[in-house]
Specification:
- By secondary structure, the protein is mainly beta.
- It contains 4 helices and 32 strands.
- Strands 16, 17, 18, 19, 20, 21, 23, 24, 27, 28, 31 and 32 form a 12-stranded antiparallel β-sheet that branches. Strands 3-2-5-6-8 form a 5-stranded mixed β-sheet, with no helix packed on it. Strands 9-14-15-12-13 form a 5-stranded mixed β-sheet.
- A hairpin with a 2-residue loop joins strand 31 and strand 32.
Length: about 525
């Protein structure tokens, strides 16, 4: 009976979607430009042709003003654009440095064209962004790559997010807190795919800001299309290639000699004597077929080494190696049909010294094996998208994405991998082995289909999304007999921990929304979203 109901529900949703002769565009990875064209007397200019060009855009985008002189050009990657306005009876007008931000609609206002009474040179206007966006209800922030590359931050894009006014670094290890919510209340997207790790709700990828074209935070007031977040929606877009070959190389270096104060953590019974960090990367992009097929490739490797003086055991090496990579392909396969394929991922190998299992270390260490760990982490996130424009006011968009995360944790030495750890709370000391082995993987699979249509002053959009989440425990055990805690000379407690199995769940979503452009500088957003958790 349940199967029949589910089938009927899916058929009903698909029927609703087919009712919309729709203009589908992806608000998660693009923006738009809108405005109104009029003559010198204020009357609307119809059938004016607008051509958009920019480095981030594959080919050109073309639009025509309607009977009210209004226009809106969707599906523009974030970046700077040049817009040319042409009409048979008016002088050609150029707009330069028109900025499109991620998830935003750039409003150019009322554009006045001059009659072709005499032959005049083209008018060139440098567009200036208004202080207030009159067409969006979303509260949030945007940062472009040329802005955050000059700001003092860490190398990961998460450090850039913490620079925004509504975001703060958390002292509890739950990444960035937005609008008073914890880090686990955020949702993270890269190139339109949800990379939120289903295990701990954290960002599922290390992505250097050199691999990022733009970052957007949606805090509140956003459309029904977005959900699954009580904090912020962090939306990131990687660069696309262009018609010109471009290569960038970067390197960063730091060590203990460049730090003002010596780094010491006495609570972990460790003293960092010296450290050095090398960060080297390169990115390149360009055309495979000009105006048809672009590519972008990027790679970054990080060497993070520390010499740690562990109490009573001398100098021990703490070394971490990270490989991060990104790939993006954009292809105009047919007229008004675009494909894009994006992959981001990272591989980390960490030989950790000075910290015990569960991140807990007592002040007196009697066995070096108890504070030497091997941590291996890896992730890969990929998305295949298609955008189809079937008519002037009808788009179709679909995405198929997949994410994988693998984590392994164990002791470094044979003793560390085979003997239990003993916490002596009487003498505030620890001994034995590392005491635990942890090995699990997480996966997120999803499909998104959306349709939208411009109708008079309305932009209606509807879509469905289905996600399959899984958490598989490959091996998670405490070394027998388990973690031993000593609370008195003759009182010991043993904790065992050996879960096994997997957790799987399906998350269906349906939404419908309408952006009603009531006035040129007034838009009303209405929406309905249905989720199952």
């Amino acid at each position: 009976m349940e199967t029949i109901v589910t089938k009927k529900l899916i058929l009903s949703i698909l029927s609703i979607l087919m009712m919309f002769q729709i203009n589908i565009y992806s608000q998660t990875t693009t923006g738009s430009i809108k405005g109104k064209v009029q003559d010198e007397t204020g009357n609307p200019v119809t059938d004016a042709e607008l051509t958009i060009k920019g480095y981030a855009l594959l080919g050109t985008a073309v639009a025509v003003t309607d009977k009210n002189g209004s226009f809106e050009i969707f599906d523009l990657p974030p970046g700077e654009y040049k817009m040319v306005i042409r009409h048979l009876t008016y002088n050609t007008t150029n707009y330069e440095q028109v900025k499109v931000l991620l998830g935003k609609s750039t409003y150019l206002g009322e554009i006045t064209l001059n009659k072709k009474n005499i032959e005049l040179e083209e008018a060139v206007i440098v567009w200036e962004k208004p202080v207030i966006d009159m067409t969006s209800t979303t509260i949030g922030s945007n940062l472009e790559s040329k802005v955050f590359e000059t700001l003092p931050s860490g190398r990961d894009y998460m450090s850039v997010i913490a620079l925004m006014p509504q975001a703060n670094n958390s002292p509890y290890g739950d990444q960035v807190n937005i609008a008073g919510a914890s880090g686990s209340d955020n949702a993270y997207y890269i190139d339109g795919m949800n990379i939120t790790n289903p295990y701990d709700a954290a960002s599922g990828a290390y992505l250097p800001f050199n691999f990022v074209e733009g970052i957007e935070i949606k805090q509140s007031g956003y459309e029904a299309e977005f959900g699954n977040a009580l904090g912020g929606i962090i939306n990131v877009v990687t660069p696309s290639g262009g018609n010109k070959f471009k290569i960038d190389a970067f390197s960063f270096y730091t060590n203990d000699m460049l730090k003002w104060e010596k780094e010491t953590d006495l609570s972990l019974a460790q003293d960092i004597k010296s450290y050095n960090k090398y960060d080297i990367g390169v990115s390149l992009g360009g055309p495979i077929v000009k105006d048809k097929f672009w590519y972008f490739l990027a790679y970054n490797t990080i060497f993070d080494n520390k010499d740690i003086d562990i109490q009573g055991f001398g100098i021990n090496k703490d070394s971490k190696l990270i490989h991060a990579f990104a790939t993006k392909l954009d292809w105009i396969a047919l007229k008004n049909t675009r494909f894009n394929f994006s992959v981001v991922g990272n591989l980390s190998r960490h030989k950790e010294a000075g910290i015990g299992p569960w991140g807990m270390t007592l002040s007196n260490i009697e066995s070096i094996d108890a504070v030497l760990a091997q941590k291996n982490d890896e992730s890969i996130n990929m998305v295949l998208g298609i955008k189809k424009r079937t008519s002037k006011d009808f788009f179709l968009s679909a995405k198929l994405y997949y994410s994988y995360w693998g984590n392994k944790l164990s002791g470094q030495t044979d003793i560390g991998r085979t003997e239990p750890v003993l916490y002596d709370w009487v003498n505030n000391s620890m001994l034995g082995g590392y005491g635990m082995i942890d090995n699990y993987k997480n996966e997120r699979k999803g499909i998104k289909i959306s349709v939208a249509r411009n109708w008079n002053k309305h932009n209606v959009k509807s879509g469905i999304e289905i996600e399959l989440l899984s958490w598989d425990i490959i091996e998670t055990v405490l070394t027998e007999p388990g973690q031993i805690d000593k609370y008195a000379e003759n009182y010991f407690q043993v904790m065992t921990y050996a879960p096994e199995g997997s957790v799987k769940k399906t998350l269906p979503t349906f939404y419908i929304q309408d952006r009603w452009n009531l006035l040129e500088k007034l838009a009303i957003n209405l929406g309905l979203r249905w989720d199952v958790q």
